Amino acid sequence: LRSKNNVSSGDGNHIHATPDTTALWFKTATTVGVTEQHLVSWEGDGTCPSCDYYKISLEGNTGKIVFEFNTDQNTGDTSTCKSTSRYDDSQWYHVVAVRQGVAGNWNATIYVNGVFNGSATTATEPNSAPKLTIGRYGSSSSYYFNGTIDEVMIFNRSLTSSEIVGLYNATRVSHSSVSLADGSHTLNAYT
Asked: 11-62 pLDDT, tens per residue?
């Protein structure tokens, strides 16, 4: 991996045509303007790399989280789901994108802070997308994320909703701004 305000891998880190889950924490530096900002993306390596992709981004103007994958080399069969609210207010958010299904019925689902936040379905099976990029869109020199991304996790299976809640609870303490006064305090931890 290399870094220059984003992280990129070369070929060989494929997202395959199998169920998977991507989880991460993010915090924006400013409100999202007109340009979409990519948190994580994979770009294909076929005849139309930008037509075969998988992305988690913040939509331009709305600040909504978008989880989208285009599955069939520019045939227009794209699965897109969006969050119901803005998430560009300089607060930490935990987003989990789950891709699951079988031939003819693939589902994209998004969770924010452990809570289901939207889904979409497509009939076409996803293609393999080998080029992973964190903090911008694929090989493009645009769509940079303006903020902080932390704890990116990629699973080779679909996590269940209870596993997603557990993942959120296990990592949220390090992304909260709890200010405790001097003295004794009781904290409860959940697994």
From this structure: 444 455 678 899 999 999 999 988 999 999 887 765 665 667 788 999 999 9
The total number of residues shown for the chain amounts to 191
Long-range contacts of 156-164 (CB under 8 A, 24+ apart): 156/18, 156/20, 157/18, 157/19, 157/20, 157/21, 158/19, 158/20, 158/21, 158/98, 158/99, 158/100, 159/21, 159/23, 159/96, 159/98, 161/111, 161/116, 164/21, 164/23, 164/96, 164/98, 164/111, 164/114
- The mean predicted confidence, pLDDT, of the chain is 80
pTM score above 0.90:
no
Check whether 177 has a pLDDT greater than 50: yes
Angle at alpha carbon of residue 114, lines to 111 and 118, rounded to 5° = 25
Sign of CA dihedral 156, 54, 172, 7: positive
**Can you point out the beta strands (E) in 9-146?**
20-28, 37-43, 53-58, 64-70, 78-86, 93-102, 105-112, 115-122, 131-134
Q: Which residue has the tokens 């909260």?
A: 176
**C-beta separation of 117 from 61 below 8 A:** no
